[in-house]
Amino acid sequence: xxxxxxxxxxxxxxxxxxxxxxxxHRMFGRTSSYAEMAGHVLALNPQISNPDAIRAGDxxxxxxxxxxxxxxxxxKTFMKTRVHPRPSQIKPPTFVTQxxxxxxxxxxxxxxxxxxxxxxxxxxxxMILGSSGNLLSPGNVGLINDVxxxxxxxxxxxxxxxxxxxxxxxxxxxxxxxxxPIEKLLFGQNTTHESIRIARAGGVxxxxxxxxxxxxxxxxxxxxxxxxxxxxxxxxxxxxxxxxSTTDIKEKNIIFVETITNTTLGTFGxxxxxxxxxxxxxxxxxxxxxxxxxxxxx
Length: 298
Hints:
mainly alpha; Membrane-bound Lytic Murein Transglycosylase D, Chain A; 11 helices; elongated; disordered N terminus
């Protein structure tokens, strides 16, 4: 049998108006000093960096104070029971004997954070990745391909050199306006017009530079899409954890319906936006608005 004190904790969801000290006194009364109670609860809740800045909706772990004659209990595997009443109504915890290694506790905290804070990843992440994916859409990449097409027409004699120069400048001017402040990130120190140019050196195709940039931008676009799928997975994982951690059937159903609705709307909205961007080059401002709109709808 394990000789260390091993405890079962209860979860309490912080409500509006709760204070850390108020929760402690409702849970433990006046039998111990504030410092002893606070140290005990903070040891169970290492995610709290400032007890005076707890937020409504967060989960707080509460457990029976250890006997003063015994060493401070190590945090062990906990039987997780979601409790909604006030701390004063929480029944004293009982003892369990299954130990957990430190690295397991760290993984538990990561999963617990993900369960309650997934939106801090998925919402801004969806907007950032959506914006970059929209900006690198086929419509904008097509402006670069158009330069290559116009060059082929010029070399075949279908258009004059002046016509080629005009059409090339027109396409690249529009691309430069569309990508706006992102130009430096995409092309470094060179401008759009300096990067999208015909290769003058022998031994390589004349459109080699153009094809290189087209392929690179397509890769970046695909990376944004892949990141979006990862965020969908994060959201689904968080939802599954929330469903598993609650015993309320109604709450399980609510979480399930919200998750399915959000995922469906987000996927469908992204698909519709993608169809629109196939032949419509848009500016960076519109790319952000579309990404924010899709995320907000979901």
